[in-house]
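Give me structure tokens for this 294-residue protein.
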Amino acid sequence: MVMPMTKCAISKGTSLVASGLFFAALFCVAPLKAQKCSVSPVQVKLGQTLRITCPADFTSVKLNERSAKLYLRPDGKRFGLLPISVKDAPGTGSLLISRNDDGTPQSLPVVIRKTIFPSQNVKLSPEIESLHSTPEEMALLTSFRDAISETRSWEDPLQPPVSGCMTSPFGVKRLHNGKPTGEYHGGVDQRTPEGEAIRAVAAGTITFAKQFNVLGNAVGIDHGQGLESTYLHMSRLVVAPGAAVQRGDILGYAGSTGRSTGPHLHWVLYVNGVNVNPAQWVKLVPCSGAAKKR
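Here you go.
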């Protein structure tokens, strides 16, 4: 004889079914969540850098016509850097993140904020203003920016190359002797006395260490996976191409060589060949009246 189910039994049965469905849903949803990529920051200023983190099956990211590779990390995730140029158009965009199995790509919204950069006049003597880069120098700098190595040497946070305050920020529109140049300041200037040690912001490999007409005595470092840095106008260099350096190692000493009006350090940070704002990576304190250029 089959006994009828009591109200209590029905309730318990329903509860068990509901619980089972709940946990099943968790197990179904969890893998989906794990497949999502993330971007930081979601609102970015011109000249800043986007950081993209994804599961291992996502391998590249693209915004408009600019793309970047995502590199596998020891934790099994992929990570990459995508630069936003000073010349990019503000507005809402969509990151397209592709997979290695040709599966459905993921799309993430980003907002490029309107960014106002001030103008800055630099007074140059006729001798300094007449300095120009040679074709060979331009080719070397282009090759440096375009080369992207696979091994990451850098770690957060980066170290300021000198301790001095910032006399000229990133992105200012440059005038020479009151005349617009059509150029912007692609790095930052820090107040640096003659002879002060210039140090690497992160570990990496020296790509070039030589004298340029405009840049003066300069060093370029490849930090890996799209991050590079250059250090300009030094009085003396103490490193050579091909050498491995660690964060904080001395590269040379401050001076005023090349197109420079006084001892200081002008240094530049590149992400996948694009100048980016070092102030997003390193804490920099502006000097009082920092619109002036030494």
